[in-house]
């Protein structure tokens, strides 16, 4: 926290009268606004939308303090304070450096290509009983993430752990000035993120700039590249590795199937640590964390106790459908105040209209003041307008309960001593229409609660990676001119991925429009609290009521339909109702014929019932090089029709024709808006697909394993014949789930432990058998990937002569959708 005056001073701004206000939050993303009274917004330039564009919206939400680089007409914002700087990002960084300089504490700066976040989290797990630690949230390690992390240092902290990542030369110096690490840690240098650099040496040199003023650098002495470069630093070095002369000598690493034993020698103290991790990357990260802890004078005895307790770092926030229209967010990341704030933001983003409930366990005590910690937790819950709190644990029942009472909060609260206590009382809670965050330390085993509240379904799930969807959305946006709008087609439950969840995410990312096929789909989305405009491609007359009631915008494609809808509007007493006009240019599906455009223009001219929002057409073959001339012909027809309409009806409207493949292949066809569909899920032509992330994974599990002899047969009509002694796995998915029967008899395959297992015999209604003879260590209950990473849905589609669209939208509603986000 700093006063606004101090902040202005730190940015070298003086002269302007500034009120005495305390600023707690630096805001760089307008969507994350929680407490406007004490937030300062930095109008950062974005790749597409400049931060200055969000000032009116933030002002309306009550925010008054802004750091800007453009001229703002202060008259439009009474009471607003605008700190004007040359470069908003530099100002943010300068402020963070100023904040950092107020603290004389140990600061660990971590850089490297891989393992930064894991080493940071493991150090946190190892040291949190001894220190009051502040650390970067998630993987905040960028030019923006680092200043936001450093701003979190509070007077009670006695150790800070921050990550620094760079993507191009010249960036590390900025980060060094902000972090000012006293201890430098370099993790694995792989080939990741090397685009901006000539080679690995250049990249490493840049990274090591972070440590210029550090007291010590901790590094892997066995990596020749690291050793060569680190040896040249003026800073003292703490090496770990196999060499006897290193500060921490790794004597041996013994791997067994159950775990790994690492024998270490720290200045003559020989000891061994035990971990259940066996992969090389985890071992390297563990030894790195040990080296840092030893340097910080943590006893080897304590490390021997704590290393086996290290938990995998999982920053996934999973969200699932619960019973009674609830959504559940299950966060097993960790229990500390920073991760609570991240989870509450995610809850806010997903909850939409639903009321918010939090089920929370005692927090891991980080050595600080207990009273203060629980008061902070309560304040966070209040800020995020949590309606109901269920606290579980001794501290919840005593300290938290006392705060809730003392502060006279309106939060409906219930406290239980243990998870089983709460479960015994579960029947007295009726969870309904709620967004529920379940966040508990591992010892509390909150997964029991999650599974009781979860909608029951069989073990075949479609996983939807919301980060990938957001990434793909932004990737397509960046192919467009900044002014071009985006309509996202979320018809057929957003191509099978679940309409309302994806629509919610798109609203959050400020999509301009949504498109659905039928009115019902639009109604569902509206009921989930989504307010952005929605176009309905195929509005049926019996759905006109639903359309106007939920402010959906119909696509009008014939005179009959136009007449009927106009009549409906007149009878409802509405005026200037937004509609879209579809022109037939060659798809021969829906649309007014080109020859009818003049007559149509006359019908729409001076029409007080209907307001044309957009005029559009649909391409028949935008992905097909052979048909490119036809594609351009369609575009030209639409252009001409739109001009004719505009001239006659006398006002402006949007025009659009491009679907996903046209966005990628024909930037010239983007017009005023594009209609993005399948690309959102990571599916596109080769060139663009490389930049996208696959968003959907269809997963199932093995119900039974069977050993069969050569000559035995599998499934109906005995079509699958074992050509040798074989192991057959029965998987819990069939054609009723959308796994096509055409994939029978070796046409399709699935992935088990990352290896291909072909379908043997005919696909049944609810099950299918696969051959896992050649795959070692397969057990009943193991996961099976039906499609996803490593087995693209395109490949499955190709095998049976169809397109990904059909497979995705054919996944039945019996398959549970699980959403996750990092
Ligand atoms: C489905 C649809 C789209 C999106 O097409 P993609 O190929 O999935 O990008 C665009 N416009 C209309 C009219 C559609 O029906």
Automatic annotation (TrEMBL):
The cross-references to Pfam families, in alphabetical order and at most eight, read:
Ala_racemase_C, Ala_racemase_N, Mur_ligase_M
Q: Look up the record and name the pathway of this protein.
A: Amino-acid biosynthesis; D-alanine biosynthesis; D-alanine from L-alanine: step 1/1
Gene Ontology MF terms in the entry: ligase activity
| Catalyses which reaction(s) | L-alanine = D-alanine
Q: Where is the active site?
A: 491, 716
So which domain of life are we looking at? Bacteria
Q: Where does substrate bind?
A: 589, 765
Indicate where the modification N6-(pyridoxal phosphate)lysine is found in the sequence.
Answer: 491
Residues annotated as domain Alanine racemase C-terminal: 695-820
Q: Which family does it belong to?
A: Belongs to the alanine racemase family.
What protein name is recorded for this chain?
A: Alanine racemase
Source organism per UniProt? Niabella yanshanensis
């Amino acid at each position: 926290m700093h006063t606004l005056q101090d902040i202005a001073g730190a940015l070298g701004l003086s002269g302007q009268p500034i009120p005495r206000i305390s600023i707690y939050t630096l805001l760089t993303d307008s969507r994350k606004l929680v407490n406007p009274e004490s937030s300062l917004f930095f109008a950062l330039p974005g790749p597409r939308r400049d931060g200055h564009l969000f000032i009116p919206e933030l002002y309306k939400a009550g925010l008054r303090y802004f750091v800007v680089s453009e001229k703002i007409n202060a008259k439009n914002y009474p009471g607003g304070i605008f700190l004007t700087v040359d470069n908003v990002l530099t100002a943010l960084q300068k402020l963070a450096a100023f904040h950092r300089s107020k603290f004389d504490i140990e600061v660990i700066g971590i850089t490297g290509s891989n393992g930064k976040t894991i080493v940071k989290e493991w150090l946190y797990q190892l040291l949190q009983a001894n220190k009051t630690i502040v650390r970067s949230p998630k993987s905040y390690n960028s030019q923006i993430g680092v200043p936001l992390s450093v701003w979190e240092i509070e007077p009670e902290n006695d150790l800070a752990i921050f990550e620094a990542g760079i993507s191009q030369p010249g960036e590390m110096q900025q980060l060094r000035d902000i972090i000012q690490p006293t201890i430098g840690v370099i993790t694995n240098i792989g080939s990741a993120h090397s685009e901006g650099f000539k080679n690995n040496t250049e990249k490493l040199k840049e990274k090591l700039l972070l440590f210029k003023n550090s007291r010590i650098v901790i590094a892997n002495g066995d990596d020749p590249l690291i050793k060569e470069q680190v040896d040249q630093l003026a800073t003292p070095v703490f090496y770990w590795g196999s060499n006897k002369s290193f500060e921490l000598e790794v004597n041996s690493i013994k791997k067994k199937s159950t775990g790994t034993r690492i024998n270490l020698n720290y200045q003559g103290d020989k000891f061994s640590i035990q971990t259940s991790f066996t992969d090389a990357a985890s071992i390297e990260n563990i030894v790195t964390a040990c080296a840092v802890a030893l340097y910080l004078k943590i006893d080897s005895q304590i490390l021997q106790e704590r290393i086996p307790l290290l938990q995998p770092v999982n920053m996934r926030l999973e969200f699932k459908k619960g019973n009674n229209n609830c959504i559940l967010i299950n966060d097993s990341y960790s229990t500390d105040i920073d991760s609570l704030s991240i989870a509450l933001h995610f809850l806010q983003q997903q909850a939409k209209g639903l009321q918010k409930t939090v089920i929370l366990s005692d927090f891991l005590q980080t050595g600080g003041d207990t009273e203060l910690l629980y008061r902070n937790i309560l304040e966070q819950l209040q800020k995020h307008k949590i309606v109901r709190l269920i606290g579980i644990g001794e501290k919840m029942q005593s300290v938290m309960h006392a705060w809730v009472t003392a502060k006279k909060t309106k939060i409906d609260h219930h406290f239980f001593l243990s998870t089983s206590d709460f479960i015994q009382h579960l029947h007295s809670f009726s969870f309904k229409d709620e967004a529920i965050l379940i966040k508990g330390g591992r010892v509390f085993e909150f997964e029991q609660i999650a599974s009781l509240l979860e909608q029951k379904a069989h073990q075949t799930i479609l996983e939807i990676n919301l980060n990938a969807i957001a990434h793909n959305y932004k990737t397509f946006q960046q192919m467009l001119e900044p002014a071009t709008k985006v309509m996202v087609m979320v018809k057929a439950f957003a191509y099978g991925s679940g309409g309302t969840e994806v629509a919610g995410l798109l609203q959050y990312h400020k999509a301009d429009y949504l498109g659905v096929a039928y009115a019902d789909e639009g109604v569902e989305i509206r009921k989930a609290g989504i307010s952005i405009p929605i176009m309905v491609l195929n509005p049926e007359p019996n759905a006109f009521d639903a359309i106007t009631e939920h402010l959906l915008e119909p696509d009008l494609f014939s005179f009959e339909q136009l007449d009927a809808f106009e009549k409906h509007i007149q009878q409802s007493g509405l005026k200037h109702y937004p509609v879209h006009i579809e022109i037939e240019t060659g798809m021969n599906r829906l649309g007014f014929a080109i020859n009818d455009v003049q007559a149509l223009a006359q019908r729409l001219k001076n029409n007080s019932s209907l307001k044309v929002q957009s005029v559009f057409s649909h391409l028949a073959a935008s992905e097909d090089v052979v048909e490119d001339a036809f594609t351009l012909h369609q575009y030209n027809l639409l252009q001409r029709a739109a001009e004719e309409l505009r001239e006659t009806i006398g006002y402006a409207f949007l025009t659009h024709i491009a679907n996903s493949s046209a966005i990628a292949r024909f930037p010239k066809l983007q017009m005023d808006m594009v209609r993005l569909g399948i690309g959102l899920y990571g599916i596109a032509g080769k060139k663009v697909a490389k930049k996208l992330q696959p968003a959907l994974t269809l997963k199932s599990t093995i119900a039974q394993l069977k050993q069969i002899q050569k000559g035995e047969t599998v499934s109906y009509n005995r079509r699958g014949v074992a050509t040798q002694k074989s192991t057959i796995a029965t998987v819990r998915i069939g054609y009723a789930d959308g796994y096509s029967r055409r994939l029978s008899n070796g046409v399709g395959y699935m992935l088990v432990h990352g290896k291909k297992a072909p379908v043997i015999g005919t696909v049944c209604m609810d099950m299918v058998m696969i051959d896992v003879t050649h795959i070692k260590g397969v057990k009943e209950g193991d996961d099976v990937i039906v499609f996803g990473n490593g087995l693209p849905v395109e490949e499955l589609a190709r095998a049976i002569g169809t397109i990904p669209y059909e497979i995705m939208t054919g996944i039945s509603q019996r398959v549970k959708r699980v959403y996750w986000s990092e």
